[in-house]
Design a protein that fits this description.
Layout: E1 2-8, E2 31-34, E3 37-43, H1 47-57, E4 63-68, H2 74-81, E5 87-91, H3 102-114, E6 121-126, E7 129-131, H4 135-143, E8 149-150, E9 154-155, H5 169-172, E10 173-176, E11 185-188, E12 200-201, E13 207-209, H6 210-222, H7 224-230, H8 240-246, E14 254-255, E15 260-261, H9 280-285, E16 290-292, H10 301-323, E17 331-337
Parallel strand pairs: 2-17, 3-4, 3-6, 4-5, 8-14, 15-16
Antiparallel strand pairs: 1-17, 6-13, 7-16, 9-12, 10-11
Helix pairs in contact: 1-2, 6-7
Amino acid sequence: MFTLLVQPNDNPFIQSTEPFFNIHLTKNRIWVVNIRIAYCLTVHTRPEQVGRLLDRIGDADDHYYVDVFNKGLEDKWLQVLDRPAYDIEKVFKYSNGWGSFKLVQATLDAMEHFRDKPYDYFINLSGQCYPLRPIEQIKQRLAAENGKSFVEYEPFPRPRWSDEKGGYRRLERIYFRPFRHANMWSVPRIRKIPLGMRPYGGSQWFCLHKAHVEYVLSFLEEHPEVVSFYKRSLIPDEMFFQTILMNSEVRDEIVNDNKRYTDWSKKCTPLPAVLLSEDVPRLERCNKFFARKFDMLLDSKVLDILDVRSLSRETAIDDDDGRHDGGDGGRRVIIRTVS
């Protein structure tokens, strides 16, 4: 249900220098929408940095599912995640999840956990992600999209995965981890993707509208063989959700952009590269919602700079609101969701 509040004002909302965040629905109106987000955080290191991330995205109206892929330091993690004002579900269920189905399963667990909760968008983040804009701005942008989701996708063969036969090698062999902390092993098998679906790949980070989350969950209830197939694939978190959504009737509602900034271009460093203070100008221009990856032990100043920039945007909006004292000019329309 929506509550509509109409206020007269003489001037439009203060305009951002980034065109991506200038949301014009009519010439003289600006719509500010408060929506609810369900966050799935899969984390494994840097509890203090995860705490800082929660400080930035924290909102009592939103929901949080934090899956810690590290069964050590539970006390430290619980201390960081102890935030009574927020709805946070804390899970210590998996470990050593890279390359396996565990990351997909953790995401599905979070989706199922949120299934009966009131929210509009499901956003998954790592512990080394960080927002590039005030969360209120991100919510405004999502609300203006009329239920679309943001997912990076590309059909196989994917040129970026040319050394893996365009991605087919991830599917054509059976992958497994023979014992804890072992690397992924594989054996050759003739395998075909279920239901004749065309495989897609892309980043594992996305922003899904609740309707599309529900589609995924309902689809898997009807077709558990898809889960069985991907449990024996390599790095399924970069294929699983893209393949389901892009072979469905909702594919036209999926925007091919996950709204994340990552740097895969740097040399002589593990990729994606850790983002530093020198990267701030590119982060400012990228028109994304979040970026990864950051590491406070290498450069905490970059997060300080992003916090200051974000706070200045929030202050500018608040100051602009305060200057409006009525009149017969344009109207500012505010829509707030209420349960």
